[in-house]
Amino acid sequence: MQVYPNQFNQEISRSLKPVYLLFGDEPQQKFEMIEAVRNSARQQGFTERTVFVADKEFSWSALLEATQTLSLFSSQQLIELELPTGKPGTEGSKVLQTIAATLGTDILLIIHGPRIAKDVQKAKWFKVLDEIGVFSLSYALEGKQLYSWVQQQLQLANVSTTPACVKLIADFCEGNMLAAKQEIQKLSLLFDQQHITEDQVEAAMVDQSRYNVFQLIDVMLGGEQQRCIKMLYRLESEGIEPNIIIWALLREWQLLWKLRRMLDEGEAIQWQRHGIWRNKQALYQAALNRLSKNTLTVIRDQLRDADIAFKQQTVVRPYIKICHLCMLFLAIPLQTLPFMD
């Protein structure tokens, strides 16, 4: 049974399930869910905790034995298994299916790892565990969802502030929820039982925004100019290699060119055939709505020239050129931009 992270505490307050499958690339949400299971399990008598990591040296027989052997120290035990790749492999899959069929009431199992795709969720081991447990996939929050999460965290920390302050905190820590949590805890200590103003928040906080190239592409496709510029600024400050972004832009151009041709020829787009899942379709549709074939041709020429210049290392300010390329994807005419070199 799948449960969204913002509903997880409500779900676990009803009853403990035998298995929790907690995956995703957003560490703060995933950590909070794991902690919620640990705390609830401890309250219900699962006082012993055993941790396994399925690395290259891992013995799956050790996990199987742990789930089928009565502990000497506790009648109930919590077992945690980390899957660093999100996949257990052939042997692990068989062991997990066996565990699902034989798991007793004295064992509670948490399996966690990075973001997993649909193919993992369709695997036999995953399905049999999901049938008897809870699955939750954490992901980076943005926009209204991030705002609501920050507001909730402030309330939990007994921090009184204004909606403008909530937005300021969300902007400062976008893409880095762990930092947001830490900053809110710091504000709680600095201004105990005080109503906090925007000036106090701004003075106390450090800009903790963290982004990756995939988030940049999503924002660019969605047409969000200011967020796109902010992300590029942060990526540059974090030392992300410019060629990685150029490669990503080239890949997106190729996909958009294919989709544009299909639309111009009157064909219906089969999104999943092109690897575009439901949560991304609106972004690509927004990009196609503003990018004509002629505009994409201009982008192609600029990308080609930029790729050559980057490989020859003749670009003085790489991120300025990347910013201009992103603006072209946002359908901002080249002549309105500063000189690209």
Write the layout of secondary structure elements.
Elements: H1 8-14, E1 19-24, H2 27-43, E2 48-53, H3 60-68, E3 77-82, H4 89-102, E4 107-113, H5 118-121, H6 124-132, E5 134-138, H7 143-156, H8 163-172, H9 177-190, H10 198-204, H11 213-222, H12 225-237, H13 242-264, H14 278-290, H15 293-311, H16 318-329
Parallel strand pairs: 1-4, 1-5, 2-3, 3-4
Helix pairs in contact: 1-2, 3-4, 4-6, 7-8, 11-12, 11-14, 12-16, 13-15, 13-16, 15-16
Largest sheet: 5 strands, parallel
> What is the share of helical residues?
55-70%
Biggest β-sheet: strands ordered side by side in the sheet: 2-3-4-1-5
| Total DSSP helices | 16
**Span of the ends, CA to CA:** 53 Å
Strand content: 5-15%
Spatial extent as radius of gyration: 24 Å
In a nutshell, what does this entry contain?
The chain has 341 residues and is of the alpha/beta class. It contains 16 helices and five strands. It is globular, with a radius of gyration of 24 Å.
Q: Which terms would index this structure?
A:
single chain, 341 residues, alpha/beta, Rossmann fold, Helicase, Ruva Protein, domain 3, Zinc Finger, Delta Prime, domain 3, 3 domains, 5-stranded parallel β-sheet, 16 helices, 57% helix
Please tell me about this protein's structure.
This protein has 341 residues and is an alpha/beta fold. The protein folds into three domains: 5-138, P-loop containing nucleotide triphosphate hydrolases (Rossmann fold, 3-Layer(aba) Sandwich), CATH 3.40.50; 143-204, Helicase, Ruva Protein, domain 3 (Orthogonal Bundle), CATH 1.10.8; 213-336, Up-down Bundle (Zinc Finger, Delta Prime, domain 3). The chain contains 16 helices and five strands. The protein has helices spanning 8-14, 27-43, 60-68, 89-102, 118-121, 124-132, 143-156, 163-172, 177-190, 198-204, 213-222, 225-237, 242-264, 278-290, 293-311, 318-329, and strands spanning 19-24, 48-53, 77-82, 107-113, 134-138. Helix 4 (89-102) links the parallel strand 3 (77-82) and strand 4. The longest helix has 23 residues, at 242-264. The relative contact order is 0.09.
